[in-house]
Design a protein that fits this description.
Blueprint lengths: L1 H19 L40 E11 L5 E12 L5 E7 L10 H4 L11 H8 L9 E7 L7 E4 L2 E10 L3 E12 L11 E5 L4 E6 L5 E2 L2 E2 L3 E2 L15 E10 L3 E4 L2 E2 L2 H4 L2 H10 L7 E4 L1 H9 L5 E11 L4 E4 L3 E8 L4 E8 L6 H20 L7 E6 L4 E4 L2 E4 L11 H16 L1 H6 L9 H22 L13 H4 L19 H20 L2 H15 L6 H12 L4 H8 L7 E12 L4 H9 L12 E4 L15 H4 L1 H10 L2 H6 L5 E9 L7 E7 L4 E6 L10 E8 L3 E6 L14 E2 L7 H9 L2
Parallel strand pairs: 1-13, 20-21, 21-23
Antiparallel strand pairs: 1-2, 2-7, 3-6, 3-10, 4-7, 5-6, 8-9, 9-18, 11-12, 13-17, 14-18, 15-17, 16-19, 19-20, 22-23, 24-25, 24-26, 26-29, 27-28, 27-30, 30-31
Helix pairs in contact: 7-8, 7-10, 8-10, 10-12, 13-14
Length: about 750
């Protein structure tokens, strides 16, 4: 019985010990340097592991034959007829087609208005108030009057806000095509009263309208390998996802209007006066300055004598994703030729007299600079022209044409801010020809892929233009400019990798932060040569195609042999911040005498210290092995016998004479108080006043992302160390970035200094 009792007690004791024993808990890989395979889709036959289009990549195509008439009346209207030829190049059979109806964003009781949170204070321009809250004023949205096949048979369709589904009488087989017709009309909105990407601006003084017309025709949605149909509703924030195609567009407008748009104007000689046509031909041969094609006098004459006749402008555009145009009797028109590496293109500006003299002086020159610089960094501009149109408070882009703000006051005077803002917006909007008009990303989903990449390239173009202009443009995209945003409320901050319609602060999240990230990559992480090759490779791989984020990330690593997953994960997929600092700096001294560590090692291996291999040790002043003689400025090699002997045994006298012998050693301990990992940029200032910069790669943090140390060997005494003095890594607190620590003046000292008492 006692034996059984003993065994029971032993079992309970053993069980108790097992329960008390601390068993280590496993965890998933939490390294900030782990690969981003958990965040991006795997490669496949459509998009390969290198970030390039795969062997089975496809994209559908839509061709348009469009006839529209611009009716210039008190409530302007646009009527249209189009024939769409849709090519199903996908491996899938399609039961129906999705067509975008962007104008329905302005329809009564639109989805956009329904989901809008108006907040506590609402500010509306008078025209917007009337149209929104009364039964008067503008009534927007498409009026679809006919959808038929080529034989005139009606095709059933369903309109869901800004999307229209056309149900096909038979399945559209893979690699087959379909042709169908749509007739429509809509009232054109006054964009100066009710902001929009297109519409008209009314000038009361001369009772004329300026039209910038886009999203004016029902247009095909994208069908691809990633989303199937990209039929997310257009609520205005997320922009466009569009297939490429060929356009034939005839636009009828008042006969005294000046009009231009996407594509080649095939009847220019018919629609311009003989003098205007001759000036146009001269502009195509003039590379040094813009040539006035429609003069101010001609534009003012058109304003006064309104024609009741009509004129049709005929365009053809090949391999574009969209079409837009501008028309007004108020337009002046100038142009100049631009020589790129492979071709000649035309830079064009259209503007009313209200934009003078600012636009004639800067607009076309800005277009020309943008064409040159973007072509240099990406690929030569493939189209024959790029047009900048002046419009009230605008900044919007379409293939070959864009609208931009910037006007002087009534006396023709303008501030530097107005001038610089105009140059910047023209550069940005013309630059959108590359992203996303040619490198055709999905704007409805990923705003950063066009706005962020374009903002960065804009910065490079503006840096080049500043030298020519002789003044600073204050380009955005520098890392230090986003520090206030990064220090902001995390509750209203989302990662760059976020849907366009879900961003609190689009300007920072989709424009500035990705641009700053690319700037860091080029200036700090990759260097110009590797970055420029990767950026150009991405652009050329995906021009006239539909890239996704993973294609961008993979291409950069594929073309550079640099693992950037840590950077994409931290900067693109999180809202983490960088707050790096210098924790401490220690001076080290060289000795070849056996240290306490060597004695312990010798004992551990059962050796005598005298039999232990010769070592050179670096020790601090507070080490038990430190002796005052180590502070001597005497040559380290002469002071350390083992080093001197090694040199004489392994090198010639000539080689020894040329050796650069460090006399000073410093260990810099860095801390990361934020959650990002970043390279450490160190500026070392020496006692003689000279300085040097070194960059420690981010992977120094791979085993400890909170604290790391780096030993610096120097021939000269270092008196100051600065961590990222230009703030190229968006450090949110620079107060701990200098050694020795700078003495901070008290408030009393500051007041005393200011008051001089």
């Amino acid at each position: 019985m006692k034996t059984k009792f003993f065994l029971l007690i032993l079992f309970i004791f053993t069980l108790s010990n097992a329960q008390d024993k601390k068993v280590p808990h496993g965890h998933y890989n939490t390294s900030k340097f782990r690969q981003i395979t958990d965040l991006i889709p795997p490669p496949n036959e459509y998009r390969n592991a290198a970030g390039a289009p795969g062997h089975a990549y496809y994209q559908n195509k839509a061709d348009y034959d469009i006839q529209v008439e611009l009716i210039d009346s008190k409530q302007p209207k646009l009527t249209g007829h189009e024939t769409i030829t849709y090519y199903n190049n996908s491996p899938d059979d399609l039961e129906y087609l999705w067509v975008q109806l962007d104008q329905n964003k302005r329809a009564p009781n639109s989805y956009t208005d329904q989901i809008k949170d108006d907040g506590s204070n609402v500010m509306l321009r008078p025209g917007k108030y009337i149209s929104k809250y009364t039964n008067l004023g503008y009534k927007g949205g498409y009026h679809i009057t006919r959808v038929t096949d080529t034989n005139g048979n009606p095709l059933p369709y369903t309109i869901n806000h800004t999307m229209m589904r056309i149900d096909l009488p038979r399945v559209l087989k893979s690699h087959d095509k379909i042709k169908f017709n749509i007739d429509w009309w809509y009232n054109i909105n006054n964009f100066a009263e009710d902001w929009g990407r297109s519409g008209f601006e009314h000038f009361k003084k001369d009772d004329n309208n300026l039209y910038i017309i886009a999203q004016f025709y029902p247009r095909m949605a994208v069908y691809d390998d990633v989303n199937g149909w990209q039929n997310m509703q257009f609520i205005q924030t997320g922009e466009f996802a569009l297939p490429f195609g060929n356009f034939k567009v005839n636009i009828t407008a008042p006969a005294d209007h000046i009009l231009d748009g996407t594509g080649v104007l095939t009847n220019r000689k018919e629609v311009m006066t003989p003098n205007q046509y001759e000036r146009f031909l001269k502009a195509t041969r003039t590379f040094d300055k813009p040539v006035m094609i429609v003069t101010r006098k001609e534009a003012e004459n058109n304003e006064k004598h309104k024609s009741n006749a009509k004129k049709t402008w005929k365009f053809i555009a090949e391999n574009v994703r969209d079409f837009a145009f501008a028309s007004s009797r108020k337009f002046m028109y100038d142009a100049m030729a631009v020589q790129l590496d492979s071709k000649k293109v035309l830079a064009v500006s259209m503007y009313p007299k209200e934009a003078q003299p600012l636009w004639q002086k800067y607009s076309t020159r800005t277009v020309a600079n943008t064409l040159k610089q973007y072509s240099k960094h990406l690929f030569d501009y493939p189209y024959h022209k790029a047009i900048s149109v002046n419009a009230f408070r605008q900044g919007m882009e379409y293939p070959m044409i864009c609208w931009n703000y910037g006007r002087p006051d009534q006396n023709g005077k303008y501030s530097d801010r107005t001038r610089n803002g105009m140059i910047k917006v023209i550069t940005h909007e013309v630059g959108h020809n590359w992203f996303p008009m040619i490198v055709n990303s999905d704007e409805r989903q990923w705003m950063w892929m066009d706005e962020g990449l374009n903002t960065f390239t804009e910065l490079l173009a503006e840096q080049a233009f500043e030298k020519e202009l002789g003044f600073k443009l204050n380009s955005r995209g520098y890392p230090k400019q986003i520090v206030p945003f990064m220090k902001g409320d995390q509750n209203k901050m989302q990662p760059i990798m976020n849907n366009s319609d879900l961003m609190y602060n689009r300007s920072m999240t989709a424009y500035s932060k990705p641009a700053a990230g690319l700037y860091m990559l080029r200036e700090v992480i990759m260097g110009h040569e590797l970055f420029d090759k990767a950026f150009k490779t991405y652009a050329n791989r995906w021009k006239f195609k539909h890239p996704e984020p993973a294609d961008f990330f993979r291409t950069f690593e594929d073309a550079s042999a640099i693992d950037l997953d840590w950077f994409w994960r931290g900067w693109w997929f999180t809202t983490r911040v960088n707050e790096m600092g210098i924790n401490k700096v220690q001076r080290f001294y060289v000795t070849d005498k056996p240290t306490e560590r060597i004695k312990r090692m010798a004992k551990m291996y059962g050796m005598k210290v005298s039999d232990f291999p010769p070592y050179v040790s670096l020790i601090t002043e507070d080490s038990p092995d430190f002796t005052p003689d180590l502070k001597s400025k005497k040559n380290v090699l002469n002071r350390a016998k083992n080093l001197k002997a090694f040199l004489h045994e392994n090198f010639t006298k000539e080689e020894i004479k040329k050796i650069k012998n460090p006399k000073y050693f410093y260990r810099i301990e860095l801390v990361q108080n934020g959650e990002l990992v970043m390279p450490a940029i160190l500026k070392l200032t020496y006692k003689d006043g000279s300085s040097k910069q070194i960059i420690i790669p981010a992977k120094i943090w791979r085993f400890n992302d909170k604290k790391v140390s780096k030993l610096i060997a120097s021939q000269k005494e270092i008196v100051k160390i600065e961590l990222d003095p230009e703030n190229l890594t968006a450090d949110i607190d620079m107060s701990n970035n200098v050694w020795p620590k700078q003495k901070t003046k008290s408030e009393f000292e500051k007041l005393k200094e200011k008051s001089k008492f």
